[in-house]
Amino acid sequence: MKDQEPVPTMTTLVQALAPGSVVTNVDLVRFVAHSNQNDPARSQFHRALARWDAHENINDASGNRTAPNTMERRSAVYTALGFSDEISDTLTGLFPVARKLNTIIPTPFPPWYPSNRPSVYWENYAKYLHDVRGWSPPSVTTLDESSTEVIERLSDPTRLDRKRTKGLVVGYVQSGKTANFTGVVAKAIDEGYRLIIVLTGTIEMLRAQTQRRIDMELVGVEGILAGRDPDDPYIARYLDYQQDPDWPDKFVRHGSDLDPAGIARIRRLTSQANDFRSNPAGVQLLNFRRTNEQQPFNHHDNLSHNDAHIAIIKKNSSPLTHLVNELRRLGEATRADLPVLIIDDESDEAGINVRKPRPKSTSEDESDEASPTRINGLIREIIRLCPRAQYVGYTATPYANVFIDLNDESELYPSDFVIALDPPPDYMGVQQFHDVGRDWDDEVPTVANSNELAYIRPTHGDADNDPDRRSAELMDALDAWVLTGAIKKYREANSSLRFRHHTMLIHESVSTAIHEETAREIENLWETAQFNSSTGHRRLRRLFEEDFLPVMRARATDAPIPPDFDTLRQFIGEAHAEMEADGDPVRIINSDTAIESWRRKIDFQTQDVWRILVGGAKLSRGYTVEGLTITHFSRRINLGSTLMQAGRWFGFRPGYQDLVRLYILRTPGADMYEAFEGLLLDEESFRDQLKEYAGFDNNGQPRLTPSEVPLLVSQHLPWLRPVARNKMWRAVVTNQAPSGLHEFYGLPERGAPANAKNFREVVIPLLERATANITLPFEFKGNPGQVLAARAGLIDAREALTLLDRHEWHPDFARSVKAVRQFLNEATESGKATDWAVVLPSTTGRKFPIPELGGEVPIVKRKRRSGQYGFVGSDPRHREAVAQIARGESVPGLGASSTRGVIFIYITPDRDPDTGPINRSELVGLIAVAAPTSSIPNGSVIKWTVPRFNQSNDDASDFNNRRQ
Questions:
Q1: Does residue 496 lie within any of the structural domains?
Q2: 129 with 80, same domain?
Q3: Of 311, 324, 480, 895, which sits most exposed with the smallest number of CB within 10 A?
Q4: Which of 398, 964, 331, 487 is nearest to 710 (CA)?
Q5: CATH number, domain at 175?
Q6: What is the pTM of this model?
Q7: 3-state secondary structure of 140
């Protein structure tokens, strides 16, 4: 059904499958409603609905086009199927309409996908995900949509002219990016791409992990055997997965789907044990031929008679050099029309050119381009050798990618598209560990509503200065690991939940010497812990009753909860025994050699792993630590991309979300929890602005092009760069249109005289205009009927800018203010911004007397990060409430104006801790602005420059200063 247009069901498949019987729509819906959720027919029906929801062209009964992923589209489908309103309501309750969430920054492209070619590999991959991996139909459909959003922007492999495409897909750490690009690869092979290159980072264990995943889910049994007899002892000896317990039952089988003429078979150029290497006998590994010599290689006659070659390669010069040599041996005539797809996983690592550009001389013809680094140069060479090569980078930390020099056409800048994936359901990312946007003035934090209270356990001990405290904190973390292991055993005994893996990660340093010391300390603590004795049980009982039981009761959802510690006792012994299988549970993972030595004992694919992993860089980039429940993280990191990738506790935690704990360093000089919160604000700002400017305008033109993306990147903590300096040589903002409510929270240091001056000369004069008490009705996250009480008033745009110009900011934040201020000035001068609504929310919390404002005014709690300029962001409900003003909608007390912006202000005491009587000298104003929506252009919303080094303007000078 899903591959056809929706038509009345009684005239099609249902009646055909029930000859001689009368099957009504009611019968069909009753069957769907009462069947098991995993019933194949129910799942196929669900997939059909989801596919129709996402289809580009389905009209309603009047012939009007309906938008995908809307209730209007679903209603059109029901009408086409001949369902009554009652049946339709029942089905919507069972299978809600999935919203299309991904954000796309595009360039125009000619539509070509899907074609009429068979989709064998994609359909088998989708079926595998549902049948073997247990994905729900909506999840499979979402993957179908998101992978289509990538493949349709690549070049049709059979098009006459040669076109390269470069794009970037931005996901979240450990959020399913591999599934997305595997789907893209499956569709690419179906469509005729015949060389697939997957670059997997810099470490062998990640390459091997990706190789196995693609072999298992896409290449399949047929591709791995490659026609060889698995019963032949000699062949079996060298099979990749002979010792793998999942081989061959859980590997995809394509079977007779590969029999029809024209269906490509997949030929592996790498294996789980071996990266790409040239054949020592000189035999050409890339074996392509033209069946029809009168046509180019990419003609269907030739593509249909060639295997699809796939290579999983780490970003190392040796295998990449071998690949370049093989491509050169292939011959220019074949290379010129060979459809090639390059997937660059962890694309911000290794492949970026980090060399400093050469200073430009007075000669206008002399290039200032940097010569490429080794890996970057090899990737470029692959693309140069293959004019039809398509490059797609995948990363969770995109800043290095969008800071690439787009003036250099041979570089890897994603010039054709940027796609930001939304987090999948049940994903635990940085947002799920922080409380950004929660207003604790109006509610009391508890383990039920505060992620910090539920999951975060601060550590302060130091191996050198406070070793006893550090040992005590490590013991707390070990106790938590043993206790959560016992809870998992209890849940297995009392439900259908199963936990193959249960791991703990200790990440303190990148130093291998420190790893050795830490491992020895953990081993000593483990030996003295006495987990099965009354002493150990006393510690575990306290931890259970004071920590885990309250959190489980608040957040366990459907997972069984042990009623008391005594019920859990027997499972402690079971968990401890599994942890001590093969000796003590500690394993050091800090090099490929170390990994190889422990391969059989930490191979998540071939056996259950209940281990403590001690490591650094090798465990903080791309590699998935399965079953990770307890993390002890005390490494100091001052680069945003590195810090985010170190967050291995992000990911999917089915059946044990409530058991996850993060023991993280929180000292005045190195608060890593606040650092991650700063990253969250940076990431949210970047993604929010992408969404603001995504898609096409009414004239069919991109509202934002990929070349304008780089300077949506923000930085909330002055010491935490988005990415290393050598990956952002050229980035300078000159003008930025604010997206939504743009927060100017980068104040001078606490206690600086400028803060009092700002409050006196800027905040008070602005708030003197807010004399009316108003109520703003709004809808938040689908819930209408919300209201925000506030004081508000209007101020002329030029007067407002004059006041804002008096404000002093933190030196590291002033650059961001300058870019937005330039946009606001241009909007004012052009008449697109004529006045501003000054809004002060009337929260229900504390008040403070300010005579200039007529008496007591509301103040809020907004914590400044220790030693930093940034404050916690504005309440998302408040942002939604004032957004209607900027959109030009009529609001009570202010009316409507399409040229009106918003100046939104919080008053907060700048102190730590925020307790006791408040002094006026402590008060600061946090200012955020939302430009009139009509003032933000549909075309270029970012004006920026890549300065030449002989320029004398302020931006170039500022850029040079940052390069020092």
A1: yes
A2: no
A3: 895
A4: 398
A5: 3.40.50
A6: 0.73
A7: helix
Q: Where are the alpha helices (DSSP H) in 556-639?
A: 565-579, 592-597
- One domain for residues 780 and 670: no
Q: Are 86 and 129 within one domain?
A: no
Tokens of 675: 């650092």
What's the pLDDT band for 891 if we cut at 50, 70, 90?
very high
Q: Where are the beta strands (DSSP E) in 620-751?
A: 628-633, 651-652, 661-667, 670-671, 733-736, 742-744
Burial string for 138-152 (b: 16+ CB within 10 Å, else e) reads bbbbbbbbbbbbbbb
For 902, the token pair is: 């918003």
Domain enclosing residue 474, as ranges: 450-674
The pLDDT of residue 716 is: 47
Q: Indicate the residue type of 576.
A: H
Tell me: do 462 and 583 sit in the same domain. yes
Residue 282 CB burial class (10 angstroms; 0-12, 13-18, ≥19): exposed
Q: Name the band, by pLDDT with cuts 50, 70 and 90, for residue 407.
A: low
CB 488 within 8 A of CB 502: yes
* Same domain as 764, residue 888: yes
Cis peptide before 913 (omega within 30 of 0): yes
Please answer whether residues 269 and 227 qualify as being in contact, where contact means their C-beta atoms are separated by less than 8 angstroms: no
The burial of 937, by beta-carbon neighbours within 10 Å (0-12 exposed, 13-18 middle, 19 or more buried), is given as middle
Asked if the model's pLDDT at residue 266 lies above 60, the reply is yes
Residues 506, 654 share a domain: yes
198, 69: one domain: no
CB neighbours of 260 closer than 8 A, spacing ≥ 6?
118
- Does the residue 361 lie in any domain? no
Q: Is residue 215 part of a domain?
A: yes
Residue ranges in 315-409 assigned as alpha helix (H): 317-330, 332-336, 374-385, 399-402
The tally of domains found in the chain comes to 4
Pair 69, 109 in one domain = no
In DSSP terms, 389 is beta-bridged to: 340
Domain end marker among 656, 674, 692: 674
Residue scoring higher pLDDT (415 or 45)? 415
Query: Which residue would you say has higher pLDDT here, 763 or 61?
Result: 763
Domain stop point among 48, 73, 94: 94
**pLDDT tens digit string along 788-806?**
999 999 999 999 999 999 9
Pick from 928, 929, 935: nearest CA to 899? 935
What are the pLDDT digits (tens) for 104-114?
Answer: 878 888 989 98
Of 688, 676, 683, 749, which Cα lies nearest the Cα of 714?
683
Q: Are 153 and 392 in contact (CB under 8 A)?
A: no
In a domain, 438, yes or no: no
**Cα–Cα dist 245/647, whole Å:** 30
